[in-house]
Design brief:
mainly beta; Immunoglobulin-like; five-stranded antiparallel beta sheet; 2 helices; 1% helix; globular
């Protein structure tokens, strides 16, 4: 399959990331490029593969350009890179053995190896190019990829007596092909027509141990059996030995040693380009540039500090990414262009902003707060002996009165509160074990606190609005038992309060809903209900075979559902209709493992945390407004080159929207999803409207209608 590769400059992404100016139904990736592992020189560009991304630096115009599934690549997780200088083809292999060839801006995907069923390990370790053929050193043999015909032409399985071994590297000279394997080195006549026969390969008599790399130096052929402690590279006339330091040789003489310092900590690759610039790929500090073997600068795209994400949270237009790392544990951004990395908190897993104060919960260091430039850590001394500095603060939220609520995992102090006037207390629930993680905490429309407990279901706590008076408090543990909640499974991963006040619960066996949360302490039946949907003519419970790990409610009261293995769903308001089901196969999703979902209700952006990193998708629903004072229409004007959707945002909830021409003729009519309506620019006959001005009218649920905007079409 061929695709056009659309590279984009980081300096220009401003146009496509500012919330409301992002086209409807478009995706973006927000990856960390901190962990670099491969370097490739291509003409005047330096390519750098990272943990889940790829970017290149243009040495002439100094731009950084990202390549990903959104602009043409077929996959993520690069295992090897190579370049055919003669045919000007970049070869990319991925961890799942997918392959992309890039030539003249066209990406050709070769998925044969990815799709082939192979027993045992399946990975491409290295790529070497010789005479229009890419030699792929893999865990299951040496594969030959014809770069002109764009097809696999042969496979050589190698090993003594048919005991085939994994191939780590390949080198070809005038007469022989050498391969480094897990069982030493082998060689064969490169002109033989029967290299597919393992008997044609001879084991090198002096190489019995694993050989990871083979290169030619001024001393002859070098077989590297010290990997991963030492890697070797031939690089534009230089020979590099890469370990804790980088030793640079030229004509057999050691000319420089680059010693580890604060700039790098774990070198993965190094290269000296045609301009004698040293480039280092470091797993902690990305791509480093050295001129005259002295550190010059770090080259990397902006992004979060890590692709490991514990939680994401949008607070006062700032997006917080919480990494649960010991270093740079919080990434914060307002526009997903510029990112700040907070390094003054350890192992952050939750946060909550009340006024100007941001509260931070750690899995190892208790609770802290950031008030402007001041950092305060909470101790027994300033919390009335409620919290300690080593507590696992697993969740934070706040109520309408400005009180901070939180949970402590692995403790008897399951639920605690700091009131707006700095009164601290905790709420003991003896039916709950004190050795379990508290996974979620939400507050329902009645002020009741709902939390999920690992393997024990849910708890609901009602303080009756009197934090300091515990005599009227009530709590209940909700389980799988009928009359006690009727959960489909006691492993609960997600909780969400929808716009109707219903509590949606994600479990190890799908979804259930509490339609009467006010009845939990009322003595009436409050058991959760599972939603029955039809599939292939049969009724079944909604997503009953899925582990539902995250739930979010959009402005149209629709449900976004993240699963651990099956991607991302958008369900209708009542859950009976599947609107979208995004997977890695049908969308740019990085992974089918969805860990967290956060919505920006102003811009309709959905931020999606996966086990591979962060993405976003611009949805078509925002929160409805009570008063329609300012409506945002994008794009406007609609120019002749634009054929996408037009968003009308800032409407009342579920408004009736009409679009007419200046003569009052109805062109289009719809109902908004929450506070947003979408028009594709066509009339009732599905024809694109002509040049002119079009008026937008909306009416709320009471029938009050007003003109809210104009759209200019230009052809």
């Amino acid at each position: 399959m061929k695709k056009i590769l659309f590279t984009y400059f980081l300096l220009l992404t401003f146009l496509s990331v500012k919330g409301q100016n992002t086209p409807i139904y478009s995706w973006q990736e927000h990856l960390s490029y901190q962990s670099a592992n491969h370097i490739l020189e291509v003409e005047n560009n330096i390519y750098c593969a990272t943990e889940n991304g790829l970017f290149y630096y243009n040495k002439e115009d100094f731009t950084i350009n990202r390549l990903n599934k959104l602009n043409g690549l077929s996959d993520i997780g690069i295992s090897a890179l190579s370049y055919d200088k003669i045919n000007k083809i970049i070869i990319i292999s991925y961890n799942n053995c997918n392959i992309d060839l890039i030539k003249d801006g066209i990406v050709t995907n070769i998925s044969d190896i990815k799709e082939k069923l192979i027993i045992g390990e399946k990975i491409i370790n290295n790529i070497d190019v010789f005479d229009d053929v890419a030699y792929l050193s893999t865990s299951f043999g040496l594969l030959l990829l014809d770069l002109i015909k764009e097809e696999i032409k042969d496979t050589y399985k190698i090993g003594e007596n048919g005991n085939f071994v994994s191939i780590n590297d390949c080198y070809i000279d005038d007469t022989c092909i050498f391969v480094g394997t897990t069982d030493g080195a082998y060689f064969a006549d490169k002109n033989s027509n029967t290299l597919f026969d393992f008997n044609r390969w001879t084991k090198h008599p002096s190489q019995d141990n694993e050989v990871s790399e083979i290169i030619v130096t001024s001393w002859g052929i070098l077989f590297n059996n010290q990997y991963p402690y030492v890697k070797v590279r031939n690089s534009n006339g230089y020979y590099l030995e890469i370990g804790n330091t980088i030793s640079v040789y030229q004509n057999g003489n050691l000319i420089s040693e680059v010693v580890a310092d604060s700039n790098f900590s774990n070198i993965q690759d190094a290269w000296i380009d045609k301009d004698n610039i040293l480039w280092i790929a470091d797993s902690s500090n990305s791509l480093l540039k050295y001129e005259n073997f002295e550190f010059s600068e770090v080259i990397k795209p902006n992004g979060p500090s890590s692709n490991t994400i514990e939680n994401i949270k949008l607070q006062d237009n700032f997006l917080f990414i919480l990494h649960n790392n010991s270093k740079n544990s919080v990434s914060r951004t307002e526009d997903v262009i510029d990112w700040l990395h907070w390094d003054y908190f350890l192992d952050v897993v939750c946060s909550e902003k009340i006024g100007a104060i941001t509260y931070i919960g750690s899995s190892t260091s208790g609770l802290s707060k950031k008030d402007g430039g001041q950092i305060i850590r909470y101790t027994p001394g300033n919390t009335l002996n409620i919290l300690d500095t080593n507590y696992y603060i697993s969740n934070l939220t706040s109520d309408s009165e400005g009180n901070l609520w939180g949970t402590v995992s692995n403790s008897g102090k399951t639920l605690f509160v700091r009131s707006s006037d700095n009164y601290w207390t905790y709420f003991f629930m003896p039916q709950l074990p004190n050795d379990r993680d508290i996974r979620n905490l939400i507050i329902d429309d009645y002020g009741q606190k709902w939390g999920s407990v690992r393997a024990k279901g849910l708890f609901v706590y009602n303080d009756n609005g009197t934090i300091e008076d515990k005599s009227d408090d009530q709590y209940k543990v909700i389980t799988t038992s009928v009359g006690s909640g009727n959960l489909p499974n006691q492993e609960v991963y997600a909780l969400a309060n929808d716009l109707d006040g219903n509590i949606w619960v994600g479990t190890k066996k799908g979804i259930c809903v509490f339609y009467s949360p006010s009845a939990v302490f009322g003595g009436y039946n409050f058991d959760a209900q599972q939603i029955i949907v039809e599939e292939n003519g049969f009724g079944q419970y909604l997503l009953e075979s899925e582990i539902v790990y995250s739930i979010a409610i959009d402005g149209g009261n629709r449900k976004w559902i993240g699963t651990l293995e099956s991607g991302l769903y958008l369900l209708s308001e009542d859950g009976t209709e599947e609107i979208y089901h995004f997977t890695t196969e049908n969308s740019p999703l990085l992974s089918n493992t969805i860990l967290d979902i956060e919505l920006n209700h102003k811009t309709a952006e959905i931020f999606i945390s996966t086990d591979k990193g962060l993405m976003s998708f611009r949805n078509d629903a925002t929160k409805g407004k009570t008063n329609i004072n300012s409506v945002v229409i994008f794009p406007n004007p609609v120019r002749e080159s634009y054929y996408g959707n037009i968003s009308i945002n800032g409407l009342a909830y579920e408004s009736n929207v009409k679009i007419t021409d200046v003569s009052g003729n109805l062109v289009f009519e719809t109902t908004s999803n929450g506070g947003m309506a979408v028009w594709d620019g066509t009339d009732s006959n599905n024809n694109r409207v002509g040049t002119g001005v079009y008026l937008v009218f909306c009416s709320d649920k009471y029938g009050n209608e007003k003109a809210v905007g104009k759209i200019l079409f230009i052809h």
